[in-house]
Write a structure and sequence with these properties.
alpha/beta, Aspartate Aminotransferase, domain 1, Aspartate Aminotransferase, domain 2, 4-stranded mixed beta sheet, 36% helix, 17% strand, globular, binds pyridoxal-5'-phosphate
Length: 403
């Protein structure tokens, strides 16, 4: 067989931009063309590319130690756990690497807690999840995805999950019963197109789970660490989950760092040997994670996300008013925009990918999701003038597609 043109598995279809350098909100290709990054690594780059404090923390740690494994202790594990639990008003931390691993870990902890503390038989234990969820790509997680692209062909699937419509507190209350060990939700569904639930939904989820004696597990891998204008999206509703998953921005865009933070008595079901990770909590990850927590400690970045988010919202509302967008959903510096029906490219109806191509031609990078939706999640550190320029480019690209 002849060698394929690309040796890379084709599980992505990237825009025709090849990045060779990046700094702050900007990326650059080999020809020196510059683009504003309005995806920011799906929020892994909340602090921009190569934030100086984070790069300095990583560089310094490279000169000390990078991996010791959890078979031995190291000097940054407890400081990382302290920094992340202080930041999130939680009690205990389990360090992992990727987001999916953090969610898998939370599922394992919830099931073990259900079996050992609540006495729910393993074959009956249920975790209630939302339609339209995105929690990662492992076999168990795609088992309860409702996105056919993410799920199809990967069976047999892991049982033990029940679905409810996202944002409907009554349906959630009806779905929770004696066998429910946990409710697992994203406070805002990012991958689904930045779907913000009605006010009070997380508070309702908190009281429903409390009454039923089930755990509330909130996946803040994308919504957490400043994106919504609060440290955690759940802060906006004054709610504290029993377990919260963190990832993406926790690694500062430098290394994969994820964690489950939450109640000490719940994470306490883990005993030596019952769970683990070769790389979880490695010194380099901890050094970057601590620096990320320090960046967020005084609330400046969160306040900036709130302020720039209002600007973003006003500009998007104007595009909706002008008929250039069908809808715009926004929380903090995070938005999902839906294209109206009337946009065309080459005589056919334009989709989110077409808009992203038109934006890239204007020096702005963004990513479509689910057909006619584009997600905007600029670095929280983006200059106001750069954000305005990106939104000018968005209007121009929409006008071009509407012509
Ligand atoms: C990205 C994401 C994940 C998965 O994180 P990976 O690091 O890609 O495994 C899980 N949950 C949410 C809400 C996410 O946005």
């Amino acid at each position: 067989m002849p060698a394929p043109a690309s040796r890379l598995a084709r599980n992505y279809a990237p825009l025709p931009v090849t990045v060779v350098r990046a700094e702050g909100a900007w990326v650059e290709d080999a020809d020196g063309a510059r683009y504003l990054d309005l995806l920011a690594g799906y929020s892994a780059l909340n602090f921009g590319h190569r934030h100086p404090d984070l790069v300095a923390a990583a560089r310094a740690q490279l000169g000390r130690s990078t991996l010791v494994s959890r078979a031995f202790d190291h000097d940054l594990l407890e400081p990382f756990a302290a920094a992340a639990t202080d930041l999130t008003s939680t009690e205990m931390l389990l360090p992992m690497n990727t987001g999916a691993e953090a969610v898998e870990s939370a599922i394992k902890v919830a099931r073990r807690w259900g079996a050992q503390v609540r006495g729910v038989p393993a074959e009956r234990a249920t975790i209630v999840v939302a339609d339209g969820n995105f929690h990662g790509r492992t076999t168990t997680i795609v088992s309860f995805s409702t996105d056919p692209d993410a799920r199809e062909g990967y069976g047999p699937y892991t049982p033990g999950f029940r679905h409810v419509p996202f944002g409907d507190a009554e349906e959630l209350a009806d779905a929770v019963d004696d066998d429910t060990v946990a409710v697992l939700l994203e406070p805002v569904q990012g991958e689904a197109g930045v779907v913000v639930p009605p006010a009070g939904y997380l508070r309702a989820a908190r009281s429903i789970t409390e009454e039923a004696g089930a755990l509330l597990v909130l996946d803040e891998i994308q919504s957490g660490l400043g994106r919504t204008g609060a440290t955690l999206a759940q802060d906006l509703e004054g709610v504290r989950a029993d377990l919260t998953t963190l990832g993406k921005a926790l690694g500062g865009g430098i290394v994969p760092v994820s964690a489950v933070v939450g109640r000490a008595d719940v994470l306490g079901v883990l005993t030596p040997g019952s769970h683990g990770s070769t790389f979880g909590g490695n010194p380099l990850a901890c050094a970057v994670g601590i620096a990320v927590c320090e960046l967020l400690a005084d609330g400046t970045i969160q306040a900036r996300a709130t302020r720039l988010g209002e600007l973003l919202g006003a500009r998007l509302d104007a595009l909706v008013a002008d008929g250039l967008l069908a809808r715009a959903r926004r929380i903090g510096l995070w938005a999902g925009i839906d294209l109206p029906g009337g946009l065309t490219v080459d005589g056919r109806r334009a989709d989110g990918h077409d808009l992203c191509v038109a934006l890239a031609r204007r020096g702005v990078l963004a990513k479509d999701t689910h057909g006619a939706t584009v997600r905007l999640s600029p670095p929280l550190t983006i200059d106001e003038a750069d954000l305005e320029a990106a939104l000018d480019a968005l209007r121009a690209a929409l006008v071009e597609l509407a012509a």
